[in-house]
Structures are given as structure tokens and as C-alpha cells.
Write a structure and sequence with these properties.
The complex is a heterodimer of chains A (about 80) and B (about 250). With about 80 residues, chain A is of the alpha+beta class. Chain A has two helices and four strands; from the N terminus they run E-H-E-E-H-E. In chain A, the strands form two sheets. In chain A, strands 1-4 form a two-stranded antiparallel ribbon. Chain A has a two-stranded antiparallel ribbon with strand order 2-3. A seven-stranded mixed beta sheet of chain B has the order 3-2-4-5-9-8-10, with helices on both faces. A two-stranded antiparallel sheet of chain B has the order 6-7. Classes of the chains: A alpha+beta (about 80), B alpha/beta (about 250).
């Protein structure tokens, strides 16, 4: 059976680096970047993209609604 | 191996911020619960397709600028007077969905009279009550909802009842009034809690359509700047200390 694959896109300039998505992520996909955005925040990013299942937990707890989530529909043959 | 670029395609989209939530960057501190509740309200209004029929009443407090973030009609109220303004709006425009969005300093302190009497009259409005236990905007002063022993800038040794009185449970108070139809206490610290809070907000809006009376949704929230904690630590502190005193769940559902 194929694993469900997902991905997130973070609106980097909107992100304030609060880290709530990092603890909400059940697969430890998200990390705070070493780099900073225009406001000086360590923004959230996928540190381990292969682990993402597109569960939307991160987007749901994000106070600034800066996460968009995509999930690949599993193929029926798998 | 599937590349991330193959996943990020419009047909695979499962979650994006509500269309009603404007692109204006929010002025709230990192990790503030206001942002989550704003998105939930925007999602509910979008799903119910009542964007042009909804009027929000913004309070005084951190969320005073709420009208910059959600793309609906707004009305600003004087400190604590949001339920009174909402009463006027709803009585003049009974077919509109009218809600107030208030913090605990606004709703539970200066606006206690307006809140209780709007509930007692059974005004057909929705009240969203953000309870973080302190006055966030003005610098973390003690509020009526501050827990006993909780540190705030005006009670640096913690709240002590012989001097400062006891914390007030507004939701429990108004649940006893016959004018309220739905009183619930929610939180937005985990994905599960966010889902439940969204259902509660949706129900509170639908009650207006059914003309059942006033619905109050209390959201127990964090103020990590005022509490002097990191956002993650504030959520843990809230779960450990706020929830025993402000237990989550429906207090009234008629």
C-alpha cells in the first residue's frame, strides 16, 4: 500500500515563527528555518518533506493562516 | 520517488486560508489565538455563504482591528458595549447575521452589564468571547477572569482573592439566563480542539437563523506575550491551569 503523500506551502512573509505548527505536526515534517524572513522571524518550512501526509493539522492551528496544504490522492492500484 | 512539486498542484489542494480572510498581515503577536478564531469565523461565514449578510461588532482590545482581517461588514463599539451595539443592529436588520467578537477585558469587565442584559433579553445574536485571563493589549494587567495565583503585571505575586476577588466564569453565569440558547466553552490549542470550536461557531451562527436566542461561544485562549511565555509553553500552561477552572464543553444547548 502506498503511503499518503502531502506537502505544505508556507507564506514565508506572513509566518511569524511561533512554532505551533511544529508541535502540531504528527510526522515531525515541519521545522523552523535557520534563515529569517523580512520581519526577522524564523519561518516554518518542511524539514523532512517525505514524511508529510497532508493531514492539515499544521494549517488548522496556524494563527496567521499562512499554511496551504496539498495531498496526493492515493492511486487505486497501489 | 514523488517530487514535492508534483504534489503542489491545484487538484491536490486540501486546505487553504479562507477567502474571506484578507491578505493584510495580522498585528497579533506570534502564536496568538485570535488568528485561529478569525480564520474559523471566516470559514464558517464562507461555508454558510452569508458574507453579504453578516455584520461583526469589533470590541476594544487586541481584536479592535478585526475589521482589517475579515472581509464582511463591521461596526466598531465603545469598550464593552459590543452586545448593545449588536442589539441595535439586529433589531433594525433582523435578517442579518450579527455577531460580536470580544475579549475578557471587554466582555467580562467593562462590558459585564451589556453582556448580561443582552443575554437576559435573549437578543438573537452570537457572541464570540476570547478568554485569555488578562488584559492583553494594555500590557497584561489582571482581568476579572485572571486565575487565582496567576501572575499579571498588576498582581506580580499572583492574584489573591482577599485582595483581588475571585475569577469570574461568565459562561456559567449567562448559561443560567433563559435568554441564552447555546453556551459553550472551547479552545483552539490543538487541531482537534480547532475542529470542535469551528462546529460550535457554526452552530452559534445557525441559531440566529432559527431565532432561538443568544449564543455565546467562549474560547479559552493564550496570551503568550502577556503571560511571558513562548507560544508552545503558553498552550501547555493553558491546558494545565486554565482548563481545570474553565472546563471545555457545552454548558447549555437548547
Amino acid at each position: 500500500m502506498g503511503k499518503v503523500r502531502g506537502a505544505i506551502v508556507v507564506d514565508i512573509e506572513r509566518c511569524k515563527g511561533c512554532g505551533l505548527c511544529v508541535v502540531a505536526c504528527p510526522t515531525d515534517t515541519i521545522v523552523l528555518a535557520d534563515e529569517v524572513n523580512g520581519k526577522g522571524y524564523h519561518y516554518a518550512k518542511m524539514g523532512n518533506p517525505e514524511a508529510c501526509t497532508g493531514c492539515t493539522n499544521c494549517a488548522m492551528v496556524c494563527p496567521d493562516s499562512c499554511i496551504t496544504v496539498y495531498r496526493l490522492k492515493p492511486e487505486k492500484s497501489k | 520517488m514523488i517530487d514535492v512539486k508534483d504534489i503542489i498542484k491545484p487538484e491536490n489542494l486540501v486546505f487553504k486560508k479562507s477567502k474571506l480572510l484578507l491578505d493584510t498581515p495580522m498585528h497579533y503577536c506570534p502564536g496568538c489565538s485570535h488568528g485561529v478564531v478569525h480564520n474559523l469565523i471566516a470559514e464558517v461565514i464562507e461555508e454558510m455563504n452569508i458574507q453579504s449578510e453578516t455584520i461583526g461588532v469589533a470590541p476594544v482590545g487586541c481584536s479592535v482591528l478585526a475589521y482589517n482581517y475579515i472581509d464582511i461588514d463591521w461596526h466598531e463599539a465603545a469598550h464593552g458595549r459590543a452586545p448593545a451595539v449588536a442589539t441595535g443592529l439586529k433589531r433594525l436588520l433582523p435578517d442579518k447575521f450579527v455577531f460580536t467578537y470580544q475579549g475578557d477585558g471587554d466582555l467580562a469587565a467593562i462590558g459585564t452589564a451589556e453582556t448580561i442584559h443582552a443575554c437576559n433579553r435573549g437578543e438573537n445574536i452570537t457572541v464570540i468571547f476570547i478568554n485569555n485571563g488578562i488584559y492583553g493589549m494594555t500590557g497584561g494587567q489582571m482581568a476579572p477572569t485572571t486565575l487565582e495565583g496567576m501572575v499579571a503585571s498588576t498582581c506580580p505575586d499572583g492574584r489573591e482573592h482577599s485582595r483581588d476577588g475571585y475569577p469570574i466564569k461568565i459562561s456559567d453565569l449567562v448559561a443560567q439566563l433563559p435568554g441564552t440558547c447555546y453556551v459553550t466553552r472551547q479552545a483552539v490549542h490543538t487541531p482537534g480542539a480547532v475542529r470542535k470550536a469551528k462546529k460550535a461557531i457554526r452552530k452559534a451562527f445557525e441559531n440566529q437563523k432559527l431565532k432561538k436566542g443568544l449564543s455565546l461561544v467562549e474560547v479559552v485562549s493564550t496570551c503568550n506575550s502577556g503571560w511571558k511565555m513562548s507560544p508552545v509553553a503558553a498552550n501547555d500552561w493553558m491546558a494545565e491551569n486554565m482548563f481545570p477552572f474553565y472546563p471545555l464543553g457545552d454548558l447549555k444547548d437548547e
